[in-house]
Amino acid sequence: MAAKPQYRGRFAPSPTGPLHMGSLLTALASYLHARSASGLWLLRIEDIDPPREVPGASDSILRSLEAHGLHWDESVLFQSTRLDAYAEALNTLKASGRLFPCSCTRATLGPGGSCLRRCKPGPDDPTALRIQLDESMGFEDQILGTQAPPGESGDLVLRRKDGLYAYALAVVVDDARQGVTHVVRGADLLPQTFAQLELLTLLHSPRPDYAHLPIVCDHRGTKLSKQAGAPAIDDKRALNNLRDALRLLRQPCADSPAATVDELLVQATADWDPRALARAAKEVLVYH
């Protein structure tokens, strides 16, 4: 029997702004999930969308993670250095016969944001490159439980009209490149998981285990995000920030008397209880 691969988790922020509490919670949960399994925790900067990137955000994210004691293993992988790999993956996917050009705008896309090959691009029309999804598959989420596949197949963009590669393609290529065995991320990305599993199959790549975290909202019920103006975390309050994140994650050590971030993380790793998150999966986590 083949040996089970070592746990390899990852945190993969986009440099569209500094870390906020929602992104810190994801980083912390993925870190604790990896460390509690004696695994590796990798860092990837998803910098393939220059129009949305904020100058200096990558360095700010790295500094914040280090200030909170979240030290990664191996070198940071920057997606901007991986364009050749994405082009190679597209060539592999062309063999499936499912890729097609699409000139649709958001206003003209069909249900679920799919084109379904309805548009007929002219020779001078800017086009995105899409893939038809045919084999939706369910999976067992480590927090949310059994996830049934969506009832209807659709399609999704792999390369945008402006020539930039889409997240859906880059994430599966890089998870395979980094040997990621476990993905811990927000439940807002849950709908994309079904398509990513299909892409992994078409690329003959192993599929990770997934765990989707409850969404963190502010007091108005708005998801904490950079687009919604979530405030940056204060690195000078790192210990308090970690305690707040642990409370949101329903972890028992949030009120530990630990005096440093390193002490708190050691205890949080030893006490890590993802079952507490499963119990909170249907709740809205509110951060004031």
From TrEMBL:
UniProt-listed GO biological process terms: glutamyl-tRNA aminoacylation; tRNA modification
Keyword Protein biosynthesis recorded: yes
Keyword terms of this UniProt record: Aminoacyl-tRNA synthetase, ATP-binding, Ligase, Metal-binding, Nucleotide-binding, Protein biosynthesis, Zinc
TM stretches of this protein: none
Sequence positions that bind ATP: K226
Origin: domain of life: Bacteria
A single GO molecular function term of this UniProt record: ATP binding
Record's function text: Catalyzes the tRNA-independent activation of glutamate in presence of ATP and the subsequent transfer of glutamate onto a tRNA(Asp). Glutamate is transferred on the 2-amino-5-(4,5-dihydroxy-2-cyclopenten-1-yl) moiety of the queuosine in the wobble position of the QUC anticodon.
Record-given protein name: Glutamyl-Q tRNA(Asp) synthetase
Organism name: Congregibacter litoralis KT71
